[in-house]
Specification:
alpha/beta, 13 helices, 15% strand
């Protein structure tokens, strides 16, 4: 099997072309992609719709769609001004989903996120006032600027899809994901996310500064009257729904994974635990995250089976936040992505 792969950021367009089929696909899997799937076409159309408002962040859009398909949460990392908030708002509009934004600050309380009991003087009873977490996509802006107590208020919501109040569990809407942002360069007044919380994010996506041509396009749109607060004015409309997303999830669950590919995922994860530059390797939860996201990417690419190329394409975003470098590796200027890239280059690929 070819070791060349296409990163998931370069997602297929309206007529997706599959990666080269393996010589021996998993048993029962066709060796050609399913054509004309309206649900897949609807989700691929979301990328084009988001591009009406957001320029040059196709990889992040695809990552968020993969997270929705896999029922996982996303950590968005990028400097201010690369359209992290606009990206989430536009994606919600294109999928006809509800979204709420919370600006995480040092004085934010847990009840400000999950909701709280309010005393009603007319009835002499306490009633629960729902917090912003009761939505489809919660934009947790600058999540590392709030104390650990408030960060921890999200753990139950992220893991159990519910909020517990006075001994009563209240379910969150479906779909529900947290899209949290953080600034990679400004650490004054921030609180590092604990490993337990980082591990609950399915993907960590990095939003880079746009290239020259993309930045020219951004400025051109603004000079033409583009208003990021008016998505309807930019022509953004819903091209898929929560029902389409649920059908897509069912299709992703049917994507087959050969035993050799399962072994490849495990070998990659185990290699992170033995890497000299890492003091913390990837847990089994990370292995399941890599499996689930690879299946979603394979389905988006038009295939009903996972190839090692799919696994390679999702290794960095699925694993980069689940490991930590040794201090001496940091002093040598080594990055997490460098080490993961070395692991991808050395772990044998099944053929």
């Amino acid at each position: 099997m070819s070791q060349q792969y296409q990163p998931y950021g370069a997602a297929p367009g309206p007529a997706p072309q599959p990666a080269p089929a393996p010589p021996a696909p998993p048993s029962g899997s066709p060796d050609t992609p399913a054509a004309g799937d309206p649900v897949r076409e609807a989700l691929l159309a979301v990328r084009r719709e988001v591009a009406k408002a957001v320029v040059g962040q196709d990889a992040a859009v695809t990552g968020l769609i993969i997270a929705l398909l896999s029922r996982g949460h996303v950590l968005l990392e990028g400097v201010p001004g690369v359209a992290k908030t606009l990206l989430v708002r536009t994606l919600s509009a294109a999928l006809d989903l509800d979204t709420k934004r919370v600006q995480f600050t040092p004085d934010l309380m847990p009840g400000d996120v999950t909701g709280s009991l309010i005393y009603d003087g007319r009835t002499s009873e306490f009633t629960f006032r729902h917090g912003p977490v009761f939505t489809n996509i919660l934009l947790a802006d600058e999540i590392n600027r709030t104390p650990p107590k408030t960060q921890a208020s999200l753990l139950e919501a992220m893991e159990e899809r519910q909020v517990s109040v006075d001994g009563v569990s209240l379910p969150l809407p479906d779909p529900f994901i947290v899209a949290a942002t953080q600034n990679p360069v400004e650490y004054d007044g921030t609180y590092s996310l604990p490993e337990a919380q980082l591990d609950r994010f399915l993907l960590k996506l990095t939003l880079d500064l746009p290239g020259r041509e993309d930045e020219i396009e951004i400025i051109r749109r603004h000079s033409g009257g583009f208003d990021p607060r008016n998505l309807a004015g930019a022509g953004v409309q819903a091209v898929a729904t929560a029902a389409d997303l649920e059908q897509a999830r069912q299709a992703v669950a049917r994507v087959e994974v050969a035993p050799e590919v399962l072994g490849y995922i495990v070998d990659l994860v185990r290699a992170t635990r033995a890497a000299p530059s890492f003091q913390l390797g990837v847990s089994p939860r990370g292995a399941t995250a890599l499996l689930n996201t690879s299946r979603a990417w394979a389905w988006l690419s038009g295939r009903t089976f996972v190839t090692p190329d799919d696994v390679k394409a999702l290794t960095l975003p699925a694993l980069r936040h689940r490991v930590s470098l040794r201090p001496e590796a940091q002093m040598d200027g080594v990055s997490v992505d460098d080490v993961l890239g070395s692991i991808l280059a050395t772990v044998p690929v099944p053929r």
